[in-house]
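Minutes, project check-in
Item: structure for the 132-residue chain
Input as provided by the requester:
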Amino acid sequence: MRYLQELASLVLALCGTILALTGIVLYFLPGGSQGGPADFLLSNGQWKALHINMALLFLIAASFHVYFNWSLLWCYFKPRPAGRKTLLRWAAPVAVIIFIVALVVSLANLSPITADIYHHHGRGQGYQHRGR
């Protein structure tokens, strides 16, 4: 069972690295997330496909990682006995706060985390609705 734990951790690390790389490429290259000349080593469609497929694999690996490390994860939320000091006592609430801030910022379409990256890069004229 230990080898599955190691496998899940390695897949998680590799997918996380690729997700970071593809996310940067899709965000910063011209037309990255909405089409256009983001042909930096791969085509725009290939960058998107790579990003989505790695995200799915990341979620699967993360699920296994949480399953295999559930008891350790649960320790972050348990109260500590009196007199026992730990540096990780603050980690769980801080992680929840960071998650909530990222969620609110994303849903509110605040820069730099916007849902409409195409307009963010100043090329919004191509997406105007044209009625028949």
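Outcome recorded: The radius of gyration is 20 Å.
No further action items on this chain.
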